[in-house]
Design brief:
alpha/beta; Rossmann fold; 2 domains; 7 strands; about 45% helix
């Protein structure tokens, strides 16, 4: 049976470490990884508000500064070469939860994907990208799509009561070897060809 693989977007496909480190530096905070930035900014006066303002910038007008996780394009090539169907399913609100205003996070993400060739070079179908407003809606979409596998950086998604038992949960750690390791695990023949 051909694989139907769903992939989370934020912190699984799109890497924000460099972007958040740059935004933090603009605030006078020195930190490199997104988690460290979040903790440092939250420790500031009005920290939670400032962190949400930073997120609104990163997921909106500054989305173009995010990077693609290393190895993702090879994973996509291996998947397509083995006849897998790929979907992107993400919990992403339309706008900032802080103000419910400003640019569309979903439009910014789609523009970023378009710029990186998702819908041309990589061959993603535009109607295979889903942005959901809640985690529950994201899990419901995973079930509706009847995915064989779902790749996500958040274990909370897999712990949702409605996460489908028929879908294999695949944890993404965010390291430079994660996508090559996933390709080698799911598509060993194709992964060997890329490594050669």
């Amino acid at each position: 049976m051909p694989l139907r693989i769903g992939i989370d977007f934020d912190n699984t496909i799109a890497c924000y470490d460099r972007l958040f480190a740059g935004l933090a530096a603009e605030m006078g905070v020195v930190a490199t990884a997104k988690q460290a930035v979040r903790d440092a900014v939250r420790a500031l006066p009005r920290g939670e508000t400032r962190w949400r303002e930073m997120q609104a910038l990163a997921y909106g007008p500054r989305m173009g500064e995010a990077t693609l996780f290393a190895g993702f394009t090879d994973f996509v090539r291996a998947a397509k070469g083995q006849g897998a169907t790929l979907y992107i399913v993400s919990h992403k609100t339309e706008r900032s939860n802080l103000t419910n205003a400003g640019p569309s996070f979903r439009t910014a993400a789609r523009d970023w994907m378009t710029g990186l060739g998702f819908f041309s070079v990589m061959g993603f179908a535009r109607n295979a990208v889903f942005f959901e407003s809640t985690r529950e809606e994201k899990v419901a979409r995973i079930a509706t799509l009847k995915l064989t596998h779902f790749i996500d950086d958040l274990p909370e998604v897999f712990a949702e009561p409605a996460f489908p038992a028929a879908t294999t949960a695949v944890a993404f750690g965010g390291g430079p070897e994660d996508w090559p390791a996933l390709a080698a695990h799911l598509f060993p023949q194709a992964a060997r060809e890329f490594a050669a």
